[in-house]
Design brief:
By secondary structure, this protein is an alpha+beta fold. The chain has two domains: about 70 residues, Hypothetical Cytosolic Protein, Chain: A; about 120 residues, 2-Layer Sandwich (60s Ribosomal Protein L30, Chain: A), CATH 3.30.1330. It has seven helices and nine strands. The strands form three sheets. The chain has a four-stranded mixed sheet with strand order 6-9-7-8, sandwiched between helices. A three-stranded antiparallel sheet has the order 4-3-5. A two-stranded antiparallel ribbon has the order 1-2. Helix 1 runs antiparallel to helix 3. The longest helix is centred in the middle third of the chain and has 22 residues.
């Protein structure tokens, strides 16, 4: 049902914007915490012509927009507290599982880039080939299927420590199922993959990291390894 918590007569500045942000726009107000946050830490939601609230991950959709911290907890809170209607000051339609919609979009965005990295020749699959890439190639990071066995994961972690002098030394993602990786790469039985240095690989790890932060997954849960570094790791 349409919901609204609009407060007629309120004199504070509106929470919404009338246009997508410009590059010079560095911060926006999170409608949940009421704090100014960097745009990169937020998700923009816009009011579609049919009155529904939709996520604008690329921050380029026209129309009234409001901003929420890029976490599932914050999006769920905005839905539960009816903050979209209150901030936009009109009746709006908000999906009960808006956070699930965002999660799916973030996952598809990351996996799409994983597929582009394969087309660019930057993805190596198969345990033996991945192990060899860890030892010799300019490495951007590793990907393990969520259901990958601990033995193979630990062997590759040990190879990374040998390569980088005791530290894992690069991002390690374990947030996607094997079926998702298979579909992204157009092949079957993808359990371990190495991504070689290149822009598509960088973007993939940025997007996988954003998905992990949205879900609130900690390094101990093997989403992004705790020793992950920004940019490309030092190479031999």
């Amino acid at each position: 049902m349409p919901t609204t918590d609009a407060e007629p007569g309120a004199e504070e500045a509106p929470d919404w914007d009338e246009r997508p942000p410009k590059k010079a726009d560095l911060t926006r107000t999170d409608i949940v915490s009421r704090e100014a946050r960097p745009v990169g830490d937020l998700i923009r939601f816009v009011l579609a012509p049919d009155g529904t609230v939709v996520p604008d991950l690329k921050r380029d959709l026209p129309g009234r927009g409001v901003w929420v911290e890029a976490t599932r907890v914050a999006v769920d809170a905005a839905v539960k507290r009816r903050l979209f209607a209150r901030s936009l000051r009109q009746n709006v339609e908000v999906a009960a599982d808006l956070a699930g919609m965002v999660d799916g979009l973030l996952a598809r965005q990351a996996l799409g880039t994983f597929g582009l990295a394969r087309k660019a020749g930057l993805v190596v699959t198969g345990f033996a080939k991945v192990e060899a890439a860890v030892a010799r190639e300019r490495l951007a990071g590793l990907v393990h299927a969520a259901e990958a066995g601990s033995d193979g994961v630990e062997k590759l972690a040990a190879a990374l420590r040998r390569r980088f002098g005791g530290e894992v030394g690069c991002p390690v993602v374990r947030i996607f199922t094997g079926a998702q990786l298979d579909l992204a790469l157009g092949r079957s039985n993808v359990i371990h993959a190495a991504l070689l240095a290149g822009r598509a690989s960088e973007i993939f790890f940025e997007r996988a990291g954003a998905l992990g932060r949205f879900r609130g997954t900690t390094p101990s849960e093997s989403t992004i390894d705790s020793h992950a570094t920004s940019g490309l790791p030092p190479q031999e």
